[in-house]
């Protein structure tokens, strides 16, 4: 096997590796697997949406739909993984990722139990500690939500107190 082929097959992250890059845990961890990435450029991840998700109890019992804000959060978590990988660091208990903006968010189709949300993130730019991404989540090749996300990574000021 060539080095290129080996490298190509290792561009995935399982749940335990994802947890090294994100502080989120159940029920707020919304990335199940990273299926591809190019450091400094793009990442593709998936969220398996199951009927067991706690939010479906109230959103909505008669027609379960994944809340749009959680789809945006799943995209942001995916973007955070790419940012940490790009910086070649793993966050510690003092690291916090904050939204600084969400632009042009459009919701195109509902996401229901049994769907697999595929999240594609592209870094558009980074400047003065602000990261801007193009984010698209789709189900079966159909766009569910798209947005431009802006985030920053900061040290938690209260962590040392």
Automatic annotation (TrEMBL):
Any single Gene Ontology cellular-component annotation: membrane
Location in or out of the cell: Cytoplasm
Any single Pfam family the record assigns to this protein: FabA
Enzyme type, top EC level: lyase
Superkingdom classification of source: Bacteria
Keywords assigned by UniProt, alphabetized: Cytoplasm, Lipid A biosynthesis, Lipid biosynthesis, Lipid metabolism, Lyase
Main location group: cytoplasm
Similarity comment text for this entry: Belongs to the thioester dehydratase family. FabZ subfamily.
Listed name of the protein: 3-hydroxyacyl-[acyl-carrier-protein] dehydratase FabZ
Native source organism of the sequence: Massilia cellulosiltytica
